[in-house]
Amino acid sequence: MNQDLLGLLQKLESHMCQVVLGKQDVVRMVLVAVLAGEHILLEDVPGVGKTLVAKTLAKSVQGKFSRIQFTPDLLPSDIVGSSVFSSESHEFSFAPGPVFSNVVLADEINRTPPRTQSALLEAMSDRQVSVDGQTHSLPSPFIVIATQNPFEFEGTYPLPESQLDRFLLRISMGYPDRHQERQVLASHRDREPVEELDSIIDCQQIVQLQQATRQVRIDDAISDYLLDIVHATRECSDLHVGVSTRGALSLYRGAQAHAMVHGRDYVIPDDVKKLSPLVIAHRVVPKGYLHAGQRTAVENLIRELVETIAVPE
Predict the structure, then answer these.
(1) Residues in a beta bridge with 266
(2) Most distant CA atoms of the chain, gap in Å
């Protein structure tokens, strides 16, 4: 493993933890998504630091950052852009929307109707957008960090299954403990720490880290272990729909990234075990008594399912 890249990754983690206090696990999961070249969904009640995590990553990376505040009246063209007529040239030209950035914060993504949410589908899946028959490539790297409030909150719309499937991970921030919250109060007394952060990594280095992550080794026995978990979700009596092949590939790439974050160039079973609930829970459709919005219940079901699978030695 390239020690320079590994040192850079550790420096990025420490840099983010200076602002996101007491949430090293959350920071590491964000970095897992970044290394895997995928996107992350932060779900929790308002005010626990979801937006702060995205802004901290954006400030740490020397690239373009856009924040899209999702509201009920937001239109797809407000996200991807639109063709604009020029009175001088008498021609239409494409005006890129905020999605043309390296780090995109989709804030409160479930406060806009599904029609507008779907504007992100092609961008998140294929790193491109199509407008008026023309395809426009997005910059590299391209990372979407979306936040959402629990679906029971006023003015929220459930994310469609196809939209959820584009996120590598769905995680919760959780409340800090008393000591950590005291640190937050002290650090925000007279300033905003995130505004003082410097960029310590550029886009090309992020791409190099992503390429190095794809080279992390996965033994055939661990690949079979991963597939055993995937197929168990399809046969589970508590689930209407199990994990898709795309979900299996996401778990595979996530396991590589999780190993990389922990300084290894090989995957161990714990990488797959740790990530399974966070990668799988939002991709399955549970049966009646497990309401689709109850994230914790579905994650616990996946954990119980994983415990029934034999771990390779």
Answers:
(1) 217
(2) 69
CATH class of the domain at 1-174: alpha beta
Please list the residue range(s) of the chain that carry CATH number 3.40.50.300.
1-174
Residue with tokens 């983690």: 13
Which positions ≥6 away from 78 have C-beta within 8 Å? 68, 97, 98, 116
Lowest mean pLDDT among 245-249, 266-270, 293-297: 293-297
DSSP string computed for 32-75: HHHHHT-EEEEE--TTSSHHHHHHHHHHHEES-EEEEE--TT--
215-313 placed in CATH 1.10.8.80: yes
In whole angstroms, give the CA distance from residue 228 to residue 223: 9
Q: What is the pLDDT of residues 110-143, one digit of tens each?
A: 888 888 888 888 899 889 998 888 889 999 999 9
